[in-house]
Predict the 3D structure of the following.
Amino acid sequence: MDVLAEVLRVSGARGAVGVVLKAGGTWGQWLDSYPGAALHVVSRGTMWLHVTGGKPLEVQAGDAVLLSPGTAHGIAGGSGVTMGTCDQKAAVQAIADGSALRLGSAPAQTEVITLHYELDPEVSTPVLTSLARPMHVAAWENAQVRRTVELLTAELAQPQIGATAAVNSIVDLLLVQFVRAWLARHPQERSGSWLGAMRDPVVRDALACVHARPEHPWTTETLAAATRVSRATLSRHFRSALGQTPGAYVEQWRMDLASVRLRDTDEPVESISGAVGYGSPHAFSRAFRRARGMSPGEYRSRFRE
């Protein structure tokens, strides 16, 4: 079971190019919080990333850095540059006509591709939303990421027929490759995030079971047996990696699946309840009301209206 692929699919993590920055001289800009995750890819030169409470991070050509949704941050040409506010009008215009957003003075010495990843607001499993700090992958760490960055840069520089489809596919591929590279190269880091939990083999195996068969009557005991550890060990690893019990995670994922199906399909509630692991519509409705604050029928009606 490819847990990462499944969760990204359900959470609707789809990427798009926000804007291409071309900057020279002394430049810096503070970016307001954005509801989606932000991935900055430096295709040329050097950029410094500033996040409140943290040290400035140098991001060089070929590097990429991912920030959790809603993270206010600044990008600049140096570690001590005073940053101005984002010119939203100019940014919107650049996105609309596909031109580059120019900062500082010419000639441009740094080029940055800013990517945005929208997440389904009805999915609560925190794949990208609980990153404790920016995730940084350097160009030298992973050849695949570097080649994908080069491919994206080339597509944006010389758009041809089918460019939109190509760029969208590359942007989605880049996120998966980025996460793979980060998990492989930074096993010592503890981010306290869902992605960080994938480094724990006990939690990773348990998540694979849950995501492969969400309809199975999972309990802490049956999950422990499936992953060949004790109940106490499984519970300890879950609390350390995800801050919740195995049972709480199972219910959270089932509610995410049910929410998407209630909103996007006309399946009867009875069918959905069985598909996400509840023995009766009554038990499902009770759990759904506890998680979403309304009955499945009310939830579906809200979107239909």
